[in-house]
Amino acid sequence: MIDSPLLFALQASSTEVEGGLFDFNATLPLMALQFIILTFVLNFIFYKPVSQVLDERDEYIRNSLTTASASLLKANELTKKYEQELAQSRKEAQNVIKTSQQEAQKIVSVKIKEAQLDAEKLISEASYQLNIQKEQALKTLEAQVDALSDKIQYKLLENQSII
């Protein structure tokens, strides 16, 4: 046998079949134990706090959405209520305006009738006064005509008696 390191390495590799894909020796349970410990450590240090923050955030978002939905419903109800009140107020205002216009029209027609009655009264009084003045003028004229006719008659009679 030749003592050469190369030959020794060849013999060792051909007789030993170690270092394959999986070695089932004491390192496998140790690696499994390390993996389990690492998952527990990561779970307590990283995953639980992160999942707790995410859960709190989800709960905050749900609460915010619920509050926003409730506020939106309340706002919609208030909007409907105020729109109904506004419509009612508009109707009432229109009724008040219509009533006021009717009352104003009645007042105007009453004032017009009063003015017409006053005008008719003034016209009848003026007509009555004119009639009285006419009668007085006629009486005065009759008296003057009688006096003049008496004078004319007297003069005519006087003139005829002279002739």
From TrEMBL:
Name of the protein in its database record: ATP synthase CF0 subunit II
GO cellular component entries: plasma membrane; proton-transporting ATP synthase complex
GO MF entries: proton-transporting ATP synthase activity, rotational mechanism; proton-transporting ATPase activity, rotational mechanism
Annotated signal sequence range: none
Subunit structure, interactors included: F-type ATPases have 2 components, F(1) - the catalytic core - and F(0) - the membrane proton channel. F(1) has five subunits: alpha(3), beta(3), gamma(1), delta(1), epsilon(1). F(0) has four main subunits: a(1), b(1), b'(1) and c(10-14). The alpha and beta chains form an alternating ring which encloses part of the gamma chain. F(1) is attached to F(0) by a central stalk formed by the gamma and epsilon chains, while a peripheral stalk is formed by the delta, b and b' chains.
PANTHER family associated with the record: ATP SYNTHASE SUBUNIT B', CHLOROPLASTIC
Assigned protein family: Belongs to the ATPase B chain family.
InterPro entries: ATP_synth_b, ATP_synth_b/b'su_bac/chlpt, ATP_synthase_B_chain
Membrane topology field: Single-pass membrane protein
Cellular location(s): Cell membrane; Membrane
Keywords: ATP synthesis, Cell membrane, CF(0), Coiled coil, Hydrogen ion transport, Ion transport, Membrane, Plastid, Transmembrane, Transmembrane helix, Transport
Gene: atpg
Organism whose genome encodes this protein: Hypnea pannosa
CDD domains referenced in this protein's UniProt entry, alphabetically: ATP-synt_Fo_b
